[in-house]
């Protein structure tokens, strides 16, 4: 069986990542990367897509457990291929992406696995760093000829005892100088501890990440609402500015209308009224003012009409007969009318 392609849809630190393993004539691919790049997660993804994602998965820190997905395209020794997606679950976890993720049967992988189960795969093909380290410790613990022989055969070393002795001496020399703060191993230990501390400070739990994500989303929504409110306030400010400018003209118009109302009794001159007519009327007005001034002087003063009237001495007898004089004055009009009508009345007789 060959893995032609591996689709890391949602798994561990990966999202929609694809590894094309179908190239090359030898069928051997080397995957390398820095620490924490995801190499171990990739190995667990291969195990998961072949035998199922564990219920308690350590790769559900970025994506929710029920959304974990890994896809693959397999090819068996007969050249037949199978493309599918494995979801996390207890049953019907092998999905057909070309049929709307309808589930395949549980035995759909049998022609490709050739009888290999998950334990055999882990022991033969899926050895990770932790398993290698534990195996080495176990061989070292056995010691004796059997343990040394297995270790020597696995490492291709003939004089294993000499090599181990040299390594023990070197380790003893290094660790005996542990109190020396300037030694290389102490420097490396301090750097290692510092980086472990930084890694611990940088790590964020799933709950903490979700809380921060919700907080960030709330802040973004608040920012959008604030921006919208700011735009509305800017629009209102421009509207008020426009009203302020209009109101200034309204005030001027009201003042002009008030002045116009005060001139309602002024005679409106005709359109053909010329400057010459205006000059003539202004000259006539000035002449009338001069005549009025002369009349005022004639009326006022000791020699004026008022003075002459004041100098007239009216006898008291006439003043006492004021009512009779008024009555005779009124009857005088009737008398004149009678005299005027007398010839007509005589003729009628």
What does this structure look like?
The chain is an alpha+beta fold and 349 residues long. The model has no long low-confidence stretch (mean pLDDT 83). It has a six-stranded antiparallel sheet with strand order 2-1-3-4-5-6, covered by helices on one side. Among the domains are: 123 residues, Rossmann fold, CATH 3.40.50; 53 residues; 30 residues, no CATH class. The protein has twelve helices and six strands. The chain starts with a strand and ends with a helix.
The main sheet orders its strands as: 2-1-3-4-5-6
Q: According to CATH, what is the topology of the domain at 2-124?
A: Rossmann fold
Mean pLDDT: 83
CA gyration radius, whole angstroms: 61 Å
Distance between the termini: 165 Å
Beta-strand portion reads 5-15%
Counting DSSP E segments of at least 2 residues, the number of strands comes to: 6
Q: Enumerate how many helices there are, as a single number.
A: 12
What is the global morphology? rod-shaped
């Amino acid at each position: 069986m060959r893995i032609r392609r591996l689709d890391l849809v949602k798994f561990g630190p990966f999202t929609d990542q694809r590894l094309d393993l179908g190239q090359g004539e030898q069928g051997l691919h080397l995957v390398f990367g820095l620490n924490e790049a995801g190499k171990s997660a990739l190995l667990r993804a291969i195990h998961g897509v072949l035998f199922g994602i564990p219920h308690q998965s350590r790769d559900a820190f970025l994506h929710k457990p029920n959304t974990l997905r890994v896809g693959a395209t397999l090819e068996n020794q007969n050249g037949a291929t199978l493309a599918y997606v494995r979801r996390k679950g207890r049953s019907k976890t092998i999905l057909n992406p070309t049929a709307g993720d309808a589930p395949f049967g549980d035995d759909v992988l049998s022609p490709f696995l050739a009888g290999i189960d998950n334990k055999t795969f882990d022991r033969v093909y899926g050895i990770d760093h932790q398993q290698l380290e534990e195996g080495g410790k176990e061989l070292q613990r056995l010691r004796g000829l059997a343990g040394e022989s297995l270790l020597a055969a696995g490492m291709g070393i003939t004089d294993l005892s000499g090599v181990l002795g040299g390594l023990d001496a070197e380790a003893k020399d290094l660790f005996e100088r542990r109190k020396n703060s300037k030694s290389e191993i102490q420097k490396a230990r301090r750097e290692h501890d510092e980086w472990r501390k930084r890694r611990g400070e940088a790590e964020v739990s799933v709950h903490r990440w979700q809380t921060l994500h919700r907080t960030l989303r709330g802040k973004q929504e608040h920012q959008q609402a604030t921006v919208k409110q700011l735009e509305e306030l800017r629009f209102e400010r421009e509207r008020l500015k426009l009203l302020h400018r209009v109101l200034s003209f309204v005030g001027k118009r009201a003042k002009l209308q008030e002045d116009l109302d005060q001139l309602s009794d002024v005679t409106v001159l005709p359109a053909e009224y010329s400057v010459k007519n205006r000059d003539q009327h202004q000259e006539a007005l000035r002449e009338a003012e001069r005549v009025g001034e002369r009349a005022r002087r004639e009326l006022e003063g000791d020699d004026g009409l008022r003075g002459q009237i004041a100098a007239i001495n009216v006898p008291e007898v006439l003043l006492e007969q004021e009512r009779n004089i008024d009555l005779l004055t009124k009857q005088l009009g009737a008398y004149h009318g009678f005299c005027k009508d007398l010839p007509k009345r005589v003729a009628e007789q």
